[in-house]
Amino acid sequence: MPNADSRELALRMGDNCLILAQRLGAWCGHAPALEEDIALANTALDLIGQTRLWLGLAGEMEGGKSADDLAFQRDARAFRNCLLVEQPNGDYAHTLVRQFLFDAWHAPMLTGLMKSADPRVAEIAAKSIKEVDYHLERSTDLVIRLGDGSEESHARMQSALDDFYPFAGELLTPDAVDEALAEAGLALDLQSVRSAWRSHVAATLQEATLTAPVDAPVRKGGKQGLHSEALGYVLAELQWMQRAYPGAEW
Amino acid sequence: METAATIYPVDEIWDWLRDVPDPEIPVLSIVDLGIIRDVKWAGETLIVTVTPTYSGCPATTFISQMIDAAIRARGIHDLEIKTQISPPWTTAWISEQGREKLKAFGVAPPVEGAACIGAMKAQGPVACPHCGSTNTEEVSRFGSTPCKASWRCKDCLEPFDYFKSI
Q1: Would an 8 Å CB–CB cutoff place A39 in contact with chain B?
Q2: In what order do the strands lie in the sheet with B107-108?
């Protein structure tokens, strides 16, 4: 089995979860309504749990590193998350649209990974999908309510969609690693994820009276470790304690 | 001086675990919750297999510590607590007794049959744990812990937690 590709898959899945969870965590105590505050913190918690599983697996393949080692001791270039999840929270519409575009990829991706030839990958996917289905249900519902809401909420949602839609392409476009993974039966063909993503997103946006930008350029590079400026700030906050006091525990 | 550990019958060990409460919902034991998947002896080593409810549930580590303490208190020191994520935990594993205890505690138990993928939303009527009315509505998909959602009763007007079906 091409272990290097498998490890790359676990890193990509885990880093997406970790960085998005860190972003969502910043809303704790600041969200516009108590229910939303709780929902974001809970979603972040699910994603942190999934991070532990994915990075735990990646670490195991790297010769006994822990999920914490990988989360706290790598530099930005070694992170494999997509650019979308590292983008700043912005207003609530931005946070929500980012979540929706991600969830709409995450759910079909995990559903496909449940059939991975690597049973460790399949097990983590089967555990995660139960939580991610719930995330997708919530973000879809809110995109519709706020898109098809007041003039103000509609304008904010449309602006967030214009900003973040170009980042979704990275999740749906295979690179050499994705192709090797699909060929080995370790992951699914991203084309099938793309069609599931497109039909869910199109139907939701229509109901939300929102319009996806046409001919948006695809912003990518995160999967290869080429990140936007934003990631450095996320990592600075996430890692400073372990960088200042390596190995500190409580 | 080393003495051979007593090999207690597995049934007896299950009974000990029935006394270990869930830290978030203390009326429920970890056995009621369905997270103990296996108890067995491998030679003189006792192996307890536990599955997490939600992958990020903060109580998971604490529960392992409680199991550890409950078993060591009986003089078993050769103990291994294994975490297993497959098959993933489902609310269908909450015992009948556990469901009754939840209701008495003021938490609506998960609606049966809603546990399959793509049907996370409560499918059947969720009954208010206070007055029994099914004239209820969801306030928020999420609640005080990862496993619960916030609901309210439109008859007795009380808010309540609903244990999400997964």
Answers
A1: yes
A2: B107-108, B159-163, B148-153, B136-140
Minimal CA–CA distance to A200: which of A108, A98, A95, A129? A108
Sort B164 into a burial class: Cβ within 10 Å, 0-12 / 13-18 / 19+: buried
Residue A97's alpha-carbon distances to A69, A79, A94, B143, in angstroms, are 31, 23, 5, 22
CB under 8 Å, gap of 24 or more: what pairs does A227-232 form?
A227/A76, A227/A77, A227/A79, A227/A81, A227/A83, A227/A86, A228/A83, A228/A86, A228/A87, A230/A86, A230/A87, A230/A88, A231/A19, A231/A76, A231/A79, A231/A81, A231/A86, A232/A76
Mutate to test the interface with B, among A127, A136, A141 (most CBs of B within 10 A): A127
**Do the domain assignments include residue A249?**
no
Using a 10 angstrom Cβ sphere, with 0-12 exposed, 13-18 middle and 19 or more buried, the burial of residue B75 is exposed
ipTM score: 0.84
Does the residue A108 lie in any domain?
yes
Q: In Å, what is the CA distance from B85 to each residue of A57, A242, B82?
A: 13, 28, 10
Distance CA A177, CA A183 (A): 10
Looking at the partner chain, which of B55, B142, B144 has a beta carbon nearest the beta carbon of A127? B55
Question: B56 vs A50: CB contact, 8 Å cut-off?
Answer: yes
pLDDT of residue A12: 98
Interhelix angle B10-17/B59-72, rounded to 10 degrees, is 130
Range of the domain at A167: 3-244
Inside any domain, residue A206: yes
Residues of B in contact with A13 (CB under 8 A): none
Q: Residue A250 domain-assigned?
A: no
Domains in chain B, CATH or no CATH each? 10-83 (3.30.300.130), 91-163 (no CATH)
Nearest to B88 among A35, A39, A127 (CB): A127
Q: In one letter, which amino acid is A84?
A: L
Helix axes A119-147, A92-113, angle to 10 degrees: 150
Domains: count for chain A: 1
Q: What is the pLDDT of residues A183-193, one digit of tens each?
A: 999 999 999 99
CATH number at residue A87: 1.20.1260.10
pLDDT digits (tens, 9 = 90+) for A28-58: 999 988 889 999 999 999 999 999 999 999 9
